[in-house]
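Researcher: I'm preparing a figure for a lab meeting and need a structural model of a single chain. I don't have an experimental structure, so a prediction will have to do for now. The sequence is pasted below. Please return the structure as C-alpha cells so I can convert it later.
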Amino acid sequence: MKIKRLFILILSFVIVMTSSAFAKSINNNINLKCRLNIEQDLNKLLLERVRLFLGEEEQCKIKYNLLDNKLPENVEKWVDENKKLKKTCEIKKIDNKNYVYVMQQTPSSGYQIKIHDVQSTNDVLLVKYQAELINKDAVNLQVISYPYTVFEIENNKDYKKIIAKNTINPVNVSPIVDKEAVNYKLVENKNFTEKIKKWVNENKKSKKLQGIKKIDDKTYVYIMQEVSTSGYNIQVEDLYSVGENLFINYQAKLFDKNICVLDVISYPYAVLEIDNNKDYKKIYSSTKCFFSNIKDSKLIDAIDNANNRK
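Model: Understood. Here is the structure written out cell by cell.
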C-alpha cells in the first residue's frame, strides 16, 4: 500500500513538472517557430555556400574589368536609370554580358569608388567596395555627391542577387578643417509637438534621408533609412559641425535579432534636438554599412570568418 502511494506521489510530481515545462514551451512556441522559420533556410544556405567557399576558393573569386566613361549605349542607358533612382548596387545582363553598378552617397565631391573584392556563391554575387577621397589634401565642394563605378564580370552566369558590402569610413572632412562635436538628445514620438509632427510627416511622405529645421527657436534633425524588413531602428554614431555645416553618421540596426520580422520595405527614422541654437546652413549624412536582410549579413560574415581562418 505504501509503495502504491509512493508511486502515485512520484507520478504526480512528474506530471506537474512535465506540465510546467509544456506551459513554458507553449509560451515560447510562437517565437520559437518564427526563429526556426527564419533560421532553417539560413542554416542550409550558409552550410552550402561556406562549404563551397572553403572547398573551391578559386571558383568563388570573380574576375572583372572596370569600365571607363566610354560605355556601350545600352549600358550607359541602364547606368543613367540607376543614377536617376540613386540605386546603390545593381547587376544586369546586357548583350549576354554581366554588368555591375555600385554607388555611394558622399558628403562632398572628390570621392571615387574602389572595388576591393568580388566573389560569388552559386547564384549570389558579393561585392566589397569603399568610397575613398581621391586627394585628402584637396579642398572639395561641400555638396552631396554620388560617385559610382561600373564593371563587367568575366562570365555570363545568371546571378539572382547581388550583395554589396560598403566598407566606407564615417564622413570624412579635410584634415585642415576643425570639426566640433555637437550635443543632442533623441526626441520620442510621444514628445512631438504639432509643428514637429507636421514636419516629420512631410519628410516621411517625401522619403527624405535627412533634414534640419529650426522650430520654436530649437534646431531639430531628421534622419531616415530605407530597409527591406521591419524591426529596425536608427542609431546615431557621431554628430559634429564644420563651420555652418552639420555632419551626422548613423546606422540602421535590428533592435532584436531574435524576433520574427515582416518582409516589407520600411523606413525607420529618428528625430534629434540639437543642444544649441546655431543656424546651420546644410546637413550631410552618412550611413555605415548595414544589411537590411539577416541572411545577407550572416552570409557575408560567415565568408569573412572563413577567409580569416585561412
